[in-house]
What does this fold into?
Amino acid sequence: MTRSTTDEAAAPPLPSPKERRRLREAKSLSEEQVAAAVGVTRATVRSWETGRTSPRGRKRALYAKLIAPDPEPVPATRPKAVRRKERPKRPAPAAPEAAPVSVAPEAVAQVSAAPAAEAPTSAPEPAPVPAGTPPPPEAEPAAPRLSPDEAFDALYAHSAPGLVRQTYLLTGRRSLARESVERAFQLAWHRWPEVAVDRDPAGWVRAAAYEYAMSPWHRLRRVHRHPDAPPSEPARRALFEALLDLPPAYRRTLLLYDGVGLDLPETAAETEASTPAAAGRLEVARAAVAERLPELAAAASPAEQSELLQDRLGGLARAEHVPSPSPARTVRTGSEDKARLWTRAAIAFVALLIGATALTLHTAPTHYEQPLSPPERVGGVPPRGGPQKLTPQDVKLQKVLKEQLAHGPERLVPRIP
It folds into this structure.
């Protein structure tokens, strides 16, 4: 956590809003440049300079360092150079006359073709430094590059203990707070390429832990169905019960703004709400908590209420015994084991689906076969017999039909004599 729930140093002081703007303009910085350096919007920088809001937490330290006036250079006095007495140069001894030597033309060509780079050159003299110029700053040593495991372990060691206390204030359950933080860091290690380049990795993990802790499915678990026992001290007990009586969204907004120390736009972004909606939730939550805490209701301004809530929330988080999170290596191993398990389960499911599809295609018929109806006994129909014997009248009719022509109406209605 930040200022209220950890033992960090106090926030750096800031000048008045008008002085902030003057310092920014003195450094020839625009509002867009300050917003990009601090990680906020231009409207937020403008509200800081008009006095409507004030930076908090990490943004406050960055903003104070950015607009801090440059220290005046101290004139450096250089000792006057002591001129050395020039010693007279001794005349070089005359070279003895040498006997004439005959040189081949090939050797002369090789010497004349030698590269000019091999000839000795005189070193350039340094430029004179004017008096009063400060010495050049020494280059800062480059920070050692950490491996992914080392970077994750550093983030875990810095954020996990305070985040467990934050989540305890959010849920009122110690075991759920520890489980939520470990689950969030497992998810962060699973997505470490994304988290490592995030502007605020601790905020990424905090948002994941809050989402997991506020899931309504935990009510179905017997272990997390009821909150833990409240503190024994009356003031802390009243604050603890007032927090748990708030709706989850209002409780989260109050904890992020007054407990963690985020700005209102950052609180709105993390709670996935608009800035006016986050401001309304914050006012309602403060009013509900003020009914339980008379000293909060007696505060003269919202700024005093915020400072008082920071102090009370920090004291409540530090006073309660919260279980320590597991080692970072255990969390990383658990994340890798869980990812490996889900991968194997997905592969097994796909293989089972492919096998079932292949079996169906192999055993299914290739054409439609009409199903046979079950046999039934039929009654009331006379049995089928053989051909009947012709009567004399039928014999006459047969004889007439054979004798007559095979056309005409007589064929249709024969006359029987």
About this structure: The CA atoms of residues 195 and 204 lie 7 Å apart. Residues 1-9, 78-134 have pLDDT under 50 and may be disordered. DSSP finds 18 helices and no strands in the chain.
